[in-house]
Structures are given as C-alpha cells and as structure tokens.
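Q: Make up one entry.
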Amino acid sequence: MATLSVPHDIVSEILRRLGVKDLLRFKCISKAWCSLIDDPDFAKLHLSHSLKTGTNLSLVPRGLDGGLLSVELDSLKRARRLKHPLESYGDKFADLLGSCNGLLALMSRRDEISLWNPSTRKSRTFPAAAVEISRGRPRRGFVVYGFGYDPISDDYKLLQMAQYYFSNDDSIKSEVKVYSSSSNCWRRIQDFNFYLKYKLVHGVYANNALHFVVSRMRRSEPLVAAFDLGTEEFCLLELPDCLGTGFSLNVRAMGGCISLTVYYYLGVHVWDVHDTEIWVMKEYGVRESWTKLISVKQSEFIWGFNYVLPLAFSNNADKVLMYVDKNKFMWSGNVGRESRNYLINKEAEKEREMAWKLGKRRC
C-alpha cells in the first residue's frame, strides 16, 4: 500500500505547534523528523509560536527546601520539581540569575554557573568571572547578573557587575564583564557609573536589553538603566513624566515589554506602602508610550501589604498575576481601568487577617 507523503513545510507547521515533550518523543519517528526538530531554525519558529500564543508558559519559584519548581501559568496548581545540573555539585540551592527563550541561568554557592534548558535537559557549566577590584579596602560590595539573547549576533550573553563601596558611601568602584555563549569566555567591558539600588536583584531582560534600578548618587531618586546586548553599552531609560514623589521602583518584563512597578509610601519608612502602580512601555525607548495598567491600593481585605510584584499577564491579557507580600498570589483584573483584586489563597489571607485583628485588639 502506497504511503502518503506530507510536504516538509506542512510537517514543520504541525510540529511547531506541539509541546517540547512531544517533540522530544517524535524525534524517534525518523531521521528526517529528528533532523528537523534539532534544526536551530525550527527551534526559533517553535519559540516564536509559543510566545505569540502564550503556550508552554511556566513560573519558576523556589520551594521550601531551596530547590526550584516549575508551575504552569494557566492553572497555578500543577507544579513539578526541577532537578537542575548544579545539584551534581552537592548543592540543591541555585540562584536564578535570569531566564530567556526557555533557558535558565543558574549559579551555585560555589560560584559555578550553568546555562540550562529544563525541557531538553541540556546545559553548559562554567565558573563565574573573578572580580579584579583590589585597590583600597572597600566597606562592602556585591555582584549582580543579567542574562539575555542578542538576535543580531545570535548569541546568549551573561552580564556580571561587581560594585564596591569605600569609606565614603558616594565613592564606589565597579567592574563589568560579559560572558558570550558563542565564544564560551568572559571579557571585561566599560565600567558602570551609576549606583545599583538593589544588591540582590538581577537584571531584567526585555527588548534585547538588561535593565537595573539605579541612581546617580547613593540616596538620590531611582532611575532605570538599560544594557544593550548588541552594542554592550549602558543608557538611561526615560520614566513616565507624571510620577509623584516619595516612591521606589522595581523593573520587570511583562508580555515582552519592560514594566515598571512604582511603590508610593507614607512617613519615613519605605516599607509603609499605601499605593502601587504598574506601568508598561508599549513602544520601547519612547517615553510617551508609558501606559498605566493597574493601580493597587491598600485595603481592609489586603491589609498591610509592603510588596507587590507583577509576574505575568493571563492568556487573554485582561488580568495580571501578582506576588503580594508573603507567599500570596493575586489576580488583578480590568487592566487599564479600576482594578479588581482576587486573592488566589483567600482562606489563608482570611486567617492571617483575623490573627492580625485579634493581636491589634490585645494591644
């Protein structure tokens, strides 16, 4: 019986709509299918389709034991443990330096870095770059990273920024190095002339650049700096021109665009947050394209929140999933208008609210 021959283009169109697990199984069907699925061009088509349709999206939170989990965004109920390649070094904990196109950049406590694809389980492990700042005796310092993809050179890059404070808080030294996946080596580039505001927050990848919250002076107003992965140069990103006063910033990536979270606070304590705004830059680099998505206010139901962090859009982009304060997740609906907030773990929040009210009465 004659077999039906399906054109190569049609096979490619069908396969790129499948999940990664199915593709890995279908590599065994024939040499032609295996060659097609392993083709880098097919991988780019499959990735592009997944990003457009919002399929195969997952969150990677940290478990109670310090390990990494994968949680499907559509349900937030199905989670699986990720056994990353750095566990072979005897350390379950791994710092997530960044993610891009399904790849994770991880770092162990022994300063070993791994670029890992959880779907294919392929990885590359290499040591972090040595910090060469040695002159003087710094009071304190820290190192942050950023991971992203440069489509011009077709290269994945990892940014390492070391910053040290000396006797005067306004006196710093910085050192910037870039790891290239194509050359598999580190190299030193221009220094960074701004103050990093957060020592535990790595760069956020969006629009072919890595973004950090910075300031010109140690205690001056917050700004957003962008590191272009193509030119390997830093620049400042213009903020919305209608922000108020007394706020701090957080930068995220939402739907492929850069997102800004603005925390307004009262009094002298920066953790007394009473209002949070989430902005998205619809056209990258254009200040006028900043659009306010949501304004979340402190309420009697969501009492005493000090920290709100947007994570992702829903599949139809009408809601935003947010991390609220201590291990709570919330969908905020009516994007672009007055927000309606839905706590996912409502029972836990009610118990916490009652405990807080009882404690307040006893005082």
Q: What stands out?
A: The mean pLDDT is 76. The longest strand covers residues 140-150. The helical segments are 8-15, 20-26, 31-38, 40-53, 346-362.
